[in-house]
């Protein structure tokens, strides 16, 4: 889940730079008019190159990423009913990784309660899960608001009767060097990311203590990018929350861990209005330059499957851990943008 400076969930327009990062948008990506102009030119140039690739292939040497086949993940294993009879709660599930996780848990038999601020998107996800034979309930809630978040947790338990698993995923980013970041921007990121996880655990744990068991997974990050002071600080704070909470509640049967997704092909990573062929060309160029192992972006479904697996009893001895699902060792620094695209700071 991502939100813009107005506090609304947002997808960037095609005037923005190509945005790529782990689960949201890249710390270090320039913003404003000075960033938009080269971003548009880059995409226009790449669009022209991709459109003419077939006709020019015999006459000129084209960059490999315009002619090579796109990489793709292996097919997913069929659902195995691992969460039959269980109740799962997901924050920030109206798009991206959260949406994919809600659908994946439902496909495994779970009854899923999920929240997000975009009512239209939430209803769509709810309907899609139900049409697929799953059970889901969307409840609008802002994780920065203690009363809304507690109501979401309590209502989910009231409707479904219990709480077995929680995936605390909601998060945003705002990028700027330290001296240019406003206090309001800093506070908003901390309140949403770290504060939202703190509040979610605070309200989830009492229900799990009554049951004597539970699993909580939180979305952290290992990303460290220029301009990402607020985002990086908030995600490192989540890791600290997970460390401490796992010791508080592990002896009482509640396992708490974090997942650190790598760059994921979500709507927020893809500028709005970019044709599929152009986006695929960009991803083919970007992957080998930035993902040392698998050399491609993750799909939301891949990250969701990792979350689902971590929530099973197959990981019954894991607590207080942050699991990197990044396609390879994840380093910091500016993104290595493909030829024809502007460089991030």
From TrEMBL:
InterPro entries: NAD(P)-bd_dom_sf (IPR036291), SDR_fam (IPR002347), TAT_signal (IPR006311), TAT_signal_bac_arc (IPR019546). CDD domains: SDR_c (cd05233). Residues 1-39 are annotated as: Disordered. Keywords: Membrane, Oxidoreductase, Transmembrane, Transmembrane helix. The chain crosses the membrane at residues 43-66. GO terms for molecular function: oxidoreductase activity. Signal peptide: none annotated. Residues 1-13 have a biased composition (Polar residues). NCBIfam families: TAT_signal_seq. Belongs to the short-chain dehydrogenases/reductases (SDR) family. This is Tat (Twin-arginine translocation) pathway signal sequence. It comes from Streptosporangium subroseum.
